[in-house]
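To: structure subgroup
Subject: Chain for Friday's discussion

All,

I'm putting the inputs and outputs inline so they're searchable in the archive.
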Amino acid sequence: MQKRRVTFFYRLFGPQNHDVTVGDVVNDYTFWVMVQSSAATASSPDSGSTTDQRLIWINGTLIPQSEAKVSVFDHGFLYGDGVFEGIRIYNGRIFKLRSHLVRLMESAERIHLDPKLSIDEIEDLTRQTVAANNLQDGYIRLILSRGEGTLGLNPFSCPEPGVICIADSIRLYPEEMYRDGMKVIVAERPRIPVECLDPSVKSLNYLNNILAKCEALRQGLYEAIMLNTRGEVAEGTGDNIFVVKDGVISTPAPDAGFLLGITRQFVIDTVAPACNVSVLERTLRLEDLYDADEIFLTGTAAEVIGASKIGDRVIGNGKVGPITQKFTKTFREMVAQNAPED
């Protein structure tokens, strides 16, 4: 599919128009956009095939991408009423598949959505979709939608849930950012309070994160750090955050109110011990970030990536630090040949 050229105006990117390229890959309900500015440029991912060759699982049937459609009355489309998971494929193995599926089912239960499939059946359809698309390395988007219903909010007017599985390629950040570090900002928009929405639910409604992401995009950057309403560090718009100070690695404690990432937990439980260090969960504030020797972010799509600057403040020496480098290298080595599927 050829890229389309579009222009976004003041509301999103500021007083001057910027040409942006809308890529073929959809990430977290937004198009993967590459803002052509000195601050952020990237090449689009090479999927290795035309889009029509992709097969999408929709409610029990594998359908060519060009024919894959959902009803405009689906409450996932109308209200963001549903849950999802993003999962990586490495060398034919589906990284932490079971952990992702457990979180998916728990998210569905918390919003009173019965997928009418067991966790084993969802695992089976996921593997079928990956095999049908002949992917050895890639990305899976697994969606449980409320399903087709009325125009009202009532979720129980939707008799049949929607189950969708997409297997494709993804590339979130350009490779040079992993080498040189990425620049981020602190979002003005806080994270939705826990009392209002359980952050453990990976909901289809990502507007809180998307609007914070727009703050970064307006400055030609890819990521923003979100605080909670108490002013504590919570997470990035799509990543969890770690801080290194005097050799001690810290990450926000769960009561800060954020999604507990699968990659975050893998880094804490597996990568850190392999590097002969441990990770401390504690309350973090902006001062801890500004005073850090290193900062790195983790996520399914992002993997492990260092941050070199927050706004105008340089982190450490302004380069990706040795601990971040070691974590990134160790993570990639672990998933390259025998990625755990538990």
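Points worth raising on Friday:
The chain has a mean pLDDT of 88.
The longest strand covers residues 18-27.

D.
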